[in-house]
Structure to design on (471 residues):
């Protein structure tokens, strides 16, 4: 989602698996000669056919990266732990831009590779990878990452800032700084070990590990131990004022404000406490918070949006003002968009409709504006009803069609099935699909099963047909 202006797997496990022979590959003594074939160079998403790849499933990424703000260059090694889902002769990773690869290995052995098109890194291991076998890919590379500036979708990927860099990867930016299976349908856990000049701070998804300083450079370690889509991964490097707190029950809450915009005394506590308040309230509506920490980052990035990066949203702002509506939107995504992630980008209303509805619920609870009034105002004020909510088109995934009409669909559903059933949906839908990938069809079937009602006509009108639905 974007609001416009709005168990760790350490490398020691991989190493032990390799040394013990647990990472199986095919050798000459194989019992039967398999038919090795290349993995697909795309994951099959109609909007982004080149994104993602086939033939394997990633379990974990280990990103080790050093950044020099003076040159804006990185020097990195990313290790990918994956499992073959077919007998693979070769496979692709997504990797964009001018970064130069110095070494690439599969299961510790040098592998041949080529780069083709905008983002294909085509890897041929020394011998075939059998279906069901785990394998390890290590890629060492360096250079100056280049952000993506898409005319319809805006900036994403590695964005250099005045004091460092921020990586925001929705929808197609992750491959600008690490080799990745860049599809929402292949979630993985992450460790990120980032080295920067002493005095700078690094924030990322998940929970912090030990921080060490040596030779005027500081290394920060972060781990995301729950499955995460690549478009939700994040890095923030720069000068930050960091506030650490905890919610009732002990959930860590790590927030930060860029020093260049942190001009109001006490804003660090305001941001941290508002985040905690909203997470606790949304947990009472949507069920248990799905990750092991929460938080957020306020920074002057220059991308002109906020993003629900997993466990720690990033809010691009020129001031340190805290907007409860915006926090409710991005934190609502932790359930809808992060824990539950669409199978295809056409299903993005399942992210944005629910996150926008989180704003409406926030307005009702904290500002006394009934959800039905917000619905009525939005319904009356909408001027373009030409698109289809469940299939907005590649260049329209961040349009009002997805946000406002998605939220209106939910309020219309609430009116249709009643409050009790509707709030059961808000709690049980994320519980039933925790950490998974979901589609519009799955959602409509889930609601019909839960309510024992045929809602086909309702969903066709609100989700699958253009035009202004009659009330």
């Amino acid at each position: 989602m974007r609001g416009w202006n709005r168990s760790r797997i350490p490398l020691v496990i991989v190493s032990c698996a390799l040394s013990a022979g647990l990472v199986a590959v095919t050798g000459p003594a194989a019992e039967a000669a398999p038919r090795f074939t290349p993995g697909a160079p795309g994951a099959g998403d109609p909007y982004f056919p080149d994104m993602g790849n086939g033939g394997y499933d990633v379990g974990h990424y280990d990103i080790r990266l050093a950044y020099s703000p003076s040159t804006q260059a990185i020097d990195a090694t990313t290790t990918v732990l994956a499992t073959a889902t077919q007998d693979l002769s070769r496979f692709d990773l997504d990797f964009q831009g001018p970064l130069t690869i110095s070494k690439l290995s599969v299961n510790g052995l040098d592998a041949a590779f080529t780069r083709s098109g905008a983002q294909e890194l085509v890897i041929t291991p020394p011998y075939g990878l059998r279906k069901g076998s785990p394998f390890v890919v290590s890629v060492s590379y360096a250079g100056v990452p280049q952000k993506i500036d898409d005319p319809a979708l805006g900036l994403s990927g590695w964005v250099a800032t005045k004091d460092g860099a921020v990586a925001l990867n929705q929808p197609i930016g992750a491959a600008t700084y690490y080799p990745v299976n860049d599809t929402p349908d292949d979630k993985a856990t992450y460790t990120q070990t980032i080295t920067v000049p002493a005095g700078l701070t690094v924030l990322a998804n998940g929970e912090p590990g030990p921080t060490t300083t040596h030779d005027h450079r500081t290394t920060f370690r972060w781990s995301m131990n729950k499955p995460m889509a690549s478009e939700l991964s994040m890095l923030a490097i720069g000068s930050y004022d960091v506030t650490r707190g905890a919610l009732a029950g002990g959930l860590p809450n790590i927030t930060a404000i860029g020093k260049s915009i942190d001009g109001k005394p006490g804003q660090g506590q305001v941001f941290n406490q508002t985040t905690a308040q909203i997470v606790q309230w949304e947990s009472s509506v949507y069920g248990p918070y799905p990750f092991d920490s929460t938080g957020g980052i306020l920074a002057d990035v220059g991308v002109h949006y906020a993003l629900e990066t997993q466990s720690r949203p990033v809010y691009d702002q020129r001031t340190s003002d805290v907007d409860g509506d915006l926090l409710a939107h991005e934190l609502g995504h932790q359930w809808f968009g992060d824990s539950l992630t669409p199978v295809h980008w056409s299903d993005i209303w399942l992210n944005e409709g629910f996150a926008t509805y989180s704003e409406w619920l926030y307005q009702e609870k904290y500002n006394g504006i009934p959800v039905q009034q917000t619905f009525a105002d939005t319904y009356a004020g909408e001027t373009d009803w030409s698109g289809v909510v469940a299939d907005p088109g590649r260049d329209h995934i961040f349009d009002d069609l997805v946000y406002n009409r998605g939220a209106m669909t939910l309020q219309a559903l609430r009116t249709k099935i009643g409050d009790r059933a509707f709030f059961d949906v808000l709690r049980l839908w994320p519980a039933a699909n925790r950490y998974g990938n979901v589609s519009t069809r799955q959602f409509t079937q889930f609601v019909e099963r839960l309510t024992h009602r045929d809602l086909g006509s309702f969903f066709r009108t609100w989700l699958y047909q253009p035009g202004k639905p009659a009330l």
